[in-house]
Write the structure tokens for this entry.
Amino acid sequence: MSLGIIVKGAEGVVLAADSRVTLFGQAQLAPPPQPPTLIPSTFDHATKLLRVQHPNQKHVVAVTYGTGAIGVVQPRTARSYMPEFERDLADAPRLSVEDFARRLSDFFSQRWAASDMPPNLGAQNDMFFFVGGYDEGDAYGTVFRFSIPSEPLPQPALPEGQFGATWGGQREITDRLVQGFDPSIPSLVEDVLNIPLAQRNAVALNERLRARIPTPIPWQFLPLQDCVDVAIFLVRTTIAYQRFTVGVRGVGGAIDVATITRDGVNEIQVKRISGEREQPTGRSRT
């Protein structure tokens, strides 16, 4: 669930995510032997931007999406584990973005293995991470991607030397807006054309469609403010669209955004803890 976005521009890196976490409970709506029904419950105050407060690591931020919690009986969000990760890095020197991603991946791999999570959920049910930041002395940012438990080795999220954006989670609306077609289209085309299974390659067809429908956004040109604006736009549009759809509304709540430049991390907009707001008292006229 959720939607995480990372944008690499010439002036900096932007990470954005919504705040919704969806947990599924079971309810026996029909008498046995009918199976229980999964009931979604949403919580709109999760923090998916992950950073370490230590001054040695002020140049890197991660964002998580996909599976929202580790553990079945006692689920915990990725953010809830960050104090332990910060403790492990307390004496570490400034890490490269890739080394930070490796340490983060090792940390959550261990937490996943120690939990009661089922071992065969499939890669689509992983907990995914984008990690973005600046290596010391580099002119431009670096971005990586990994997932727990299926693909723990961090890989570049964008081709080396290129600017652009990538995203994950409930990505259907963002795909339509940016790349021009729904990600399910290649498989649907193969079904409609009755292409034999042995000749199908939805991944290759996807790449060919992306090449024929180029993204009209000039990522290498965009100032940092525009990179922030487009990341917020894509998350906000997904939230707004899901209001009118039938299905799992896994993207919602506040949109958290952070930028990383050569000077470090800047939290552009993040939700704050607040108490109950006093309602204004109206006065009646006689």
The chain has six helices and twelve strands. The radius of gyration is 21 Å.
